């Protein structure tokens, strides 16, 4: 009989994936100095008038958006607050830095596939600095000492650069806002993440379920830790919006189009 424990880990990992894939996007959108976006309701209304929006599955999307919000509020947020209480702030930031460092290969390949030589060089340099001076990425030495930031490239941008149309907007359970193209880009990003290679090749779990349990356990840790750094961030982002669904959709679409165009 298959053990129930890996199944529980799998479910928790699937649940918490929403923070891994969409919390960073929402975080970027909430920082105008980094993206050029603002986050007032008036700005969202203005964006909707300017954006060409393909949202043929709006009914489905709204239902999933509501589901994700309930999950975030009643499961992920409480767990993250508990993690916040238990784990010191410097260690939680170190864990966050480590994951950003470990996910360098995906950003590096995305830069190379877009012929962004300068971006690829930045990724190589910051990976080397943070892996040595930064002690396997736990300290972001490239930023704190050398003012060198990592890039923000992903496979959605690669597909966009290659001329693949973005397609309709869609909200997925647990993983949040994407376009049709972004969904395939997300799959590419996942395949480039180190745990997808290291766990089966070097850890070599005895069963597929154990393999999956370890991988989603890594996702769970990353997601919970990410949210614990600012548990109220998402609530603060949408608190003044008249329609949070439209607000998040428009910010996401403008942000992803800006990234593809750069």
Number of helices: 14
> Can you write the helix and strand succession as a string?
HHHHHHHHHEEHHHHH
- Poorly predicted segments: 1-23, 25-49
Write down the overall mean pLDDT: 84
Counting DSSP E segments of at least 2 residues, the number of strands comes to 2
The percent range for helix content is over 70%
Distance between the termini: 52 Å
Biggest sheet, open or closed, and with what strands and sense? 2 strands, antiparallel
Radius of gyration: 18 Å
Number of domains: 1
Q: Per the principal axes of the C-alpha atoms, what is the gross shape?
A: globular
The structure class reads mainly alpha
- Beta-strand portion reads under 5%
Order of strands side by side in the largest beta sheet?
A: 1-2
Quaternary structure annotation: single chain
Descriptive overview:
By secondary structure, the chain is mainly alpha-helical. It has one domain (40-261). 71% of the residues lie in helices and 3% in strands. It contains 14 helices and two strands. The chain has helices spanning 4-29, 32-35, 41-50, 58-86, 89-102, 104-113, 117-132, 141-144, 155-161, 180-191, 195-203, 208-228, 233-238, 244-261; strands at 169-172, 176-179. The protein has a two-stranded antiparallel ribbon with strand order 1-2. α4 packs across α12 and α6 (104-113) packs antiparallel against α7 (117-132). The longest helix is centred in the N-terminal third of the chain and has 29 residues, at 58-86. The radius of gyration is 18 Å and the shape is globular. Residues 1-23 and 25-49 have low confidence and may be disordered.
